[in-house]
Design brief:
Oligomer: single chain
Radius of gyration: 18 Å
Largest sheet: 18 strands, mixed
Number of helices: 4
Bound molecules: (2S,6S)-2,6-diamino-2-methylheptanedioic acid
Distance between the termini: 8 Å
């Protein structure tokens, strides 16, 4: 028996489990079941609260298919608020697969210093480009040529700007991008339409979770890609299917993401 809380950030939803005492992590099979919307609780991922030797606390995030991701932007806002509800704090240092990130918890929103974007192909990783930056490079998927801009926020993202997002068949294209040979660790893929000055509309196919209503790291990658392509400044609003995120790429090269996080319900897992 384990207590859990269900949280969502921009409709990206997570089961959060506090394992600071027993440090227990479920195996992939159980994570798949927990995330299943018919046979389980239903979530885009499972997040564990764990002790850290280098920060206040450690976060581990598993996708709905049981694979582990390095980082999770919507999840870390939920994670921070989950902790702040129990033990009020304004700032938290969180150990993640993308390093130690600082989170600021306000009454109505959470702001995360998401660190610096990684642009070198080898480090994202994207194969076949050496250590170049990948800005508007061609990729062939499903017999069509797309222009991709690639960014890692600790986890890999491939950002595609399109004229009309409504015309994109995410369910068909997403899985093909995810496992394309150019992406040795697979990829999250964002399709983005510039809808106003510094306003970007984005839909995502998440590695390991499929179509979700939002992706925090994806929104950061999208803002970076928009700026690199001269489609936006350094301060953007990203409109996702499940809500809005504000992204600020500051002078010191750090990306700050601000958005909401809400508790949905609590329960106990007994399977
Ligand atoms: O990198 C991955 O495998 C993602 N699916 C992890 C989850 C990212 C997330 N959507 C976010 O908000 O950054 C939770």
């Amino acid at each position: 028996m384990k207590n859990f809380e269900k949280w969502q950030g921009c409709g990206n939803d997570f089961v959060i489990i506090d394992s600071r005492e027993d440090k227990k992590i479920f195996d992939a099979e159980k994570i798949i079941k927990i995330c299943d919307r018919h046979f389980g609780i239903g979530a885009d991922g499972v997040i564990y609260v764990l002790p850290s030797e280098v920060a206040d606390v450690r976060m581990r995030i598993f996708n709905a298919d049981g694979t582990e991701a390095e980082m999770c932007g919507n999840g870390i806002r939920c994670f921070a608020k989950f902790l702040a509800e129990k033990n009020p704090v304004e700032n938290l240092k969180v150990e993640t697969g993308a390093g130690i990130l600082t989170v600021k918890i306000d009454k109505n929103s959470v702001t995360v210093d998401m660190g610096e974007p990684i642009l070198e192909a080898e480090k994202i990783p994207v194969a076949g480009f050496g250590n170049k930056k990948i800005i508007a490079e061609e990729i062939e998927v499903a017999g069509k040529i797309f222009k991709m801009t690639c960014v890692s926020m600790g986890n890999p993202h491939c950002v595609i700007f399109v004229d009309d997002l409504e015309k994109i068949n995410l369910a068909e294209l997403g899985p093909k991008f995810e496992v394309h040979e150019k992406f040795p660790r697979h990829t999250n893929t964002e399709f983005v339409q510039v809808v106003g000055e510094n306003i970007l509309r984005m839909r995502v196919w998440e590695r390991g979770s499929g179509i979700t209503l939002a992706c925090g790291t994806g929104a950061c990658a999208t803002a970076v890609a928009a700026n690199l392509n001269n489609f936006a400044g350094k301060n953007c609003t990203v409109q996702l299917d499940g809500g809005i995120l504000k992204i600020d790429w500051r002078e010191d090269n750090h990306i700050f993401m601000t958005g909401a996080a809400e508790k949905v319900f609590t329960g106990q897992i007994d399977f």
